Amino acid sequence: MGEFELIRNYFAAAPCAQPGEGVALGIGDDCALLSVPAGEQLAVSTDTLVAGVHFPDACDPFLLGQRALGVSASDLAAMGAKPLAFTLALTLPEVSAAWLEAFARGLNLMAQGCSLRLIGGDTTRGPLSITVTVFGTVPAGMALTRAGARPGDLLCVGGALGDGGGALPLVLNQRSSEASTTQALLARYWSPQPQLALGQALRGNATSALDISDGLLADCGHIALASGVRLLIERDRIPMSDALLGFFGRDEGLNAALSGGDDYVLAFTLPPSRLDSLTSAGLPVSVIGQVVAGQGVVLLDDLGQDVTPLTRGYQHFRETR
Ligand code: ADP
Ligand code: MG
């Protein structure tokens, strides 16, 4: 199978690569053409996943296809952008029809779930690596950035934390657990669900936002730095799933939530007056702390004592405290 046949069979033919709103020209020419409505801005983000670095060499290509697009789409959610399209740059060690079929199926499933259309890419030979670039639209000036959090705002997250990082020992076959726990955690790792509806609902409400990919503490550190504020996190308000708590227990589960990464849940700051309308609209908003004047990120226990971890991964925060 040659390069062009491969592109045609597995990607140009995929349902997610068919014409749709906002795509004036898709796969097949030197460039794709996107139509951006007047008054809107294009939000663009790229992520690369390298075999052996970001995922195990031998993993299910269907799940890999889902995950590769899911983690990129999460960046659109974090900016409050509406998904438009994506490109796929694929480097493959060999051409395997079975691998490509399953990968394209997983990619397509996530693409359709996120309303993203495949508009082009590149196909090369080499060690397995996947680069996805996503494009979304957002009304001019309305994108959610990391800068803008203000003292008095609430610090919130869009759901349970720690499952993605907690799943890693299962992904790497280093630990096992009962089937239902394993399934729940692995699903959160392999099939991250970008919080696109929440991100768009936060436009005009949240003062800052990002998606948690490196763990709550590290990512809150980005908001604190960009906004020039101090974030106080109340340890006991951090939401965690039953699967995570059952698998790890409270202390280790909390570690996964604080520094595990791979959650792709939104973290954002919100003026208190905006909370009710979001929760009554059924959106997943969990308040975990608040924004105060100062800098850095501080974790507080139920007595208000500073229990910010001192381990290496958090060094970054200690410096800014
Ligand atoms: P060029 O040499 O002009 O860059 P290519 O031969 O790389 O074009 O690609 C031909 C067409 O197929 C282009 O429209 C490109 O965007 C698309 N394409 C290439 N690889 C992929 C892929 N993995 N997925 C989707 N589209 C792809
Ligand atoms: Mg090319």
CATH domain topology of the largest domain: Phosphoribosyl-aminoimidazole Synthetase, Chain A, domain 2
Q: Tell me the structural class.
A: alpha+beta
**Count, helices:** 11
Identify every distinct bound molecule in the structure, by name, code or SMILES. Answer: adenosine-5'-diphosphate, magnesium ion
| Known CATH architecture of the largest domain | Alpha-Beta Complex
Query: How many domains?
Result: 2
Order of helices and strands: HEEEHEHEEEHHHHEHEHEHEEH
Task: Indicate the radius of gyration in whole angstroms.
Answer: 20 Å
Could you describe the 3D structure shown?
The chain has 321 residues and is of the alpha+beta class. It folds into two domains: 3-139, PurM-like, N-terminal domain (60s Ribosomal Protein L30, Chain: A, 2-Layer Sandwich), CATH 3.30.1330.10; 154-300, PurM-like C-terminal domain (Phosphoribosyl-aminoimidazole Synthetase, Chain A, domain 2, Alpha-Beta Complex). Helices cover 36% and strands 25% of the residues. The chain contains eleven helices and twelve strands. The chain has helices spanning 3-12, 61-79, 97-114, 163-166, 168-171, 179-190, 196-202, 216-227, 242-259, 275-280, 315-320, and strands at 23-25, 33-34, 40-50, 82-92, 117-125, 129-139, 154-157, 208-212, 230-234, 265-270, 286-292, 296-300. The strands form three sheets. Strands 8-10-7-11-9-12 form a six-stranded mixed β-sheet. A four-stranded mixed β-sheet has the order 3-6-4-5. Strands 1-2 form a two-stranded antiparallel ribbon. Helix 3 (97-114) links the parallel strand 4 and strand 5. The longest helix has 19 residues, at 61-79. The N and C termini lie far apart (57 Å). Adenosine-5'-diphosphate binds at residues 7, 11, 27-30, 88, 90, 118, 120-123.
